[in-house]
Structure formats: structure tokens, C-alpha cells
Amino acid sequence: SAEEAARKKKAQQEKVKAYRAAMSAVLAKKAADSYDSEMLELTTAMLSNNPDIATLWNLRRTCILQRRNEAPSDSPELQQLFDKDLEFTELCLRVNPKSYCAWHHRCWILENAPSANWQQEVDLCTKYLKLDERNFHCWDYRRYVVAKAEVPPEKELAFCTEKIEKNFSNYSSWHYRSQLLPILYPNVDDPSRPISEEKLKEELELVLTAAFTDPSDSSAWFYQRWLLGYAQPELDLASFRLDSKTKLAVVSFTKPIQLTGGDYQLTVSGCDNCNEITKWKPFGQSEQGSYTTTWVLQDNLTLLDDHSKDAKVTFVTANGGKHELLLQRPSPEVAVGLKKPKFGYEFGAAIVEVLKAQLISCEELLEFEPDSKWTLLTAALLMKAIDPRAHYATIRSHLAKLESVDSMRQGYYRDLASKWAIERQLEQWIEAGDLTAEIDLSGLDLTIIHYGPYLATANGLNLARNRLTDR
Fold first, then answer.
1. Nearest-10 Cα torsion for 89, 95, 97, 102
2. Pairing of strands 439-440, 334-338
3. DSSP readout, 82-129?
4. What is the pLDDT along the chain (471 residues), one digit of tens a residue?
5. pTM over 0.70
6. Which residues, at least 6 apart from 276, have a Cβ–Cβ distance to it below 8 Å?
7. Dihedral (C-alpha) 394, 400, 404, 409: value to the nearest 10 degrees?
8. Which residues contact residue 224 at a Cβ distance below 8 angstroms, ignoring those fewer than 6 apart?
9. Which domains does the chain have, with CATH numbers?
10. If we measure between CA atoms, which residue out of 130, 158, 162, 126 comes closest to residue 145?
């Protein structure tokens, strides 16, 4: 009613008036450099109603630090001061359990107090997560206090499992699990992979149960993508080409670097004028001093015949890491080399069988829910992990369907299809053995070019009949 609306408006105006008066008083005391008990009381009253005013928390910390500096280090009143403020943050978190400011202030108190009971904080998190198991602020805080309390990762993994079994739709718990598993079950045979094959098999079975309990929930699907995914490559040489006839050398890396500004070493055996690192320039429109994956050198470059058999590029990083790339000599004027990129994990036979079983489950679910976006995407990811060549046509079909089923993410699916199409062509080109041959990427409906650092050795690149645009 109009009367009720008027009453609410008046109450809101009174709150605004009170807030402005209190803030004016606080700022006046700040200007006077007066961080006394009244300042603490003012901030207490205001933060109790709205714990998300960062300025007030900053002033409150100044008040506490001033008292800490004035009191003897062994004073019991000092510990009481911090304990009291710890209790105050609990009051504020009841007002807003997801207050960034209140959680941050709690961390600050514990770091600056004479002593801190870290296990008590772990127990507090357990209590809070019983009330709301998806409060990501509390999960983040839990990781912080668990590290301080030195809680064994085995115990935390059990806690994660308990929360997941209670509610599969718990992004924070799945995420925490992905951080704990590499610590407890590392892959000693392949450090680039997060966990061992044996544990991976167990996790795939767990995530399948979660995913098919509610196919529309994305949390378990995301976790499965982490299990099947591939981490970003470490810094390494990707490719190299030198042509003494055109007086041009090109070197590419797996990650953008500032080659001439960092403490790097780059040497090319059997080449005059290649080893002065300051002469290398960033490729394209990049300015000197910028980070890029590809660097070029234009100079009077000469390849020495007596180094044709063992010619190589050596790259040494700032921390002493050494990377080498063997070179081929397809002609007297040209030297090229390339490290085959890792397009994904190569799983053992036992894991592949699990993936095949999960693919069958996805296909069965698609018979009942043909437009389930998570099932379509997961089926495509599973096929790529099992045998990308054999399933290529079906993978492209699934991604094309996702463009219409999930049109808000149409660009993502097109870019993903582009990436996988380039992987297929690049792999075939590398297997052909001629690293200077033209790479044919025509007619693939590409929207983006992936793996650019690996294309630098080719004589040409055919990009006709694609959907590439400037971005």
C-alpha cells in the first residue's frame, strides 16, 4: 500500500541520516588522528549493521595497532583485545556470512594477535559449513587456517568427501579436492599429470556417480574436465627456423617471454651471428620490451656445414633450466626444428576402459536428453581423450550441436572446435616429416588460430575458407 511504502521510505531515510552522521563523526576523529575508544565504538556500531565498509575496518585496525604498540607485549589485556575483536567478526558474519571485509579482518586479527588458536578456527569453519556447505568465503578461509594448523591433507580430503557425498553440487569442495589429490596421490611417472592413474580411476568413477545424479548440475562436470584436462606447458622451445638466404631466423617458445630483457641465454650451434641475444626482436606489432612467444632475427646469418649433423638450439632460463632443440637441414641454406606439442594426456589401458564406459553412459543419457549441454560436451571430451582421430567427425558434430543448444556460448564452442581441428592438421603435418612444407588449414571453419608457436617453420600457411576475424 501507499502507506506502507511511505513508512519504508521514511525508515530508509532515517537510516541514511544516521549513517551519514556516524560517518562524519568517524572521519572527524580520523582527521584529528584520534584512534581512541570512541572510534572503536563508532566503528563497532556501524559495522554491526553493515560489515562491508572497508574504510571502517581499516580505521579499526589502526585503533587496535595503536593499543598494541602502547601495551607491554606480555600484557593479558592485549590478547583480550584481539580475542574480543575476533568475537566481533563472528557477529558481523552472522549479519553477512559472505562479507569479504569481515573474513579478511579475521585473518588480520589472527596474524597480529600475540597468540592464535588455529585449530579453533578450523572447528569454526566446520560449524559454518554445516550451515552452508557452499559458502566459498568459508572454504577459502578454511584452506588458510588448515595450513596454519597443519591439519593433515588426508583429514581434509575426508572432509571434502563427506561434503560432496552430502551435496554433489558443491563447487568449492570439488575445487579443494583438486588441490589435495596432487599432494596425496602424485603421478610419479608423469609429473605434468596431477594424480596417479590408480587414483584417477577412482575419481572418474566418483564423478560419474555425481554427474548422473543430476546431469543439469555443472559442478561434477567441471571436476571431470579437470581430471581429463591438460595443464599449461612449462616454458620451453617450441620451434626454430633459420634461412641464410633470406637472412632471417625465427624462434618460438611455449609461453610468452621477454627474451632480451630477462636473464636468458640462447645459442644456435653452427650459426654465425645467431648468438647475440640483444639482436632478437619480438614478432609482429609487439614493441621491444614486450612479452611474446615468437622472436625474429634479421642479420647476415651463415650456416656452417661442419655442424650439420649435430646442429641444435640451446635455451637456458633465468633459474638455470636448460632446453635443447635438434635441428634438421632440409637444404644447405635452411635449418629447422620443432618439439611436438602435447595435445592431451595419454592414458593407460585401464583408464581408457573407464572412459569408454563413461562414454557409453553419456550416449545412453543423450538418448533421453539429446539437448543436455553438459552431456554433449563431456561426450566430446571423452572421445578426444579415448581416440581423437577415430571420433573426430562425431566430436565436431557434438560441438556444432552445442552452438545451437547453448547459443550464449557459441563462440566458446567454435573456438574449441578450431583448436581441435588445428591439432589434427598439425599432428598430420608433423608426422609427414617435412617441417618446411605448407600447412593446410583451409576450409576448417576456424575462428581462432591456436598453436601459433609451432607454425613458424613452414614455408606457408593456407587459411582460405575460414571464419577468422580481427579481434
1. -30
2. unpaired
3. HHHHHHHHHHHHHH-TT-HHHHHHHHHHHHHSS---HHHHHHHHHHHH
4. 788 888 888 888 888 898 899 999 999 999 999 999 999 999 999 999 999 999 999 999 999 999 988 887 778 888 999 999 999 999 999 999 999 999 999 999 999 999 999 999 999 999 999 999 999 999 999 999 999 999 999 999 999 999 999 988 999 999 999 999 999 999 888 877 889 989 999 999 888 888 878 877 888 888 988 888 766 788 999 999 999 899 999 999 999 999 988 789 999 988 878 888 888 999 886 666 688 999 999 988 887 765 556 789 999 998 889 999 999 989 888 999 999 998 888 888 989 999 999 999 999 999 999 999 999 999 999 999 999 999 999 999 999 999 999 999 999 999 999 999 999 999 999 999 999 999 999 999 999 999 999 999 999 999 999 999 876
5. yes
6. none
7. 110
8. 204, 207, 208, 211, 378, 381
9. 24-194 (1.25.40.120), 237-338 (2.60.40), 349-462 (no CATH)
10. 126
| The three grid cell numbers given for residue 247, joined into one nine-digit string | 637472412
The H or E element that residue 268 is part of is strand 265-268
Reduce the DSSP state of residue 435 to 3 states and report it.
coil
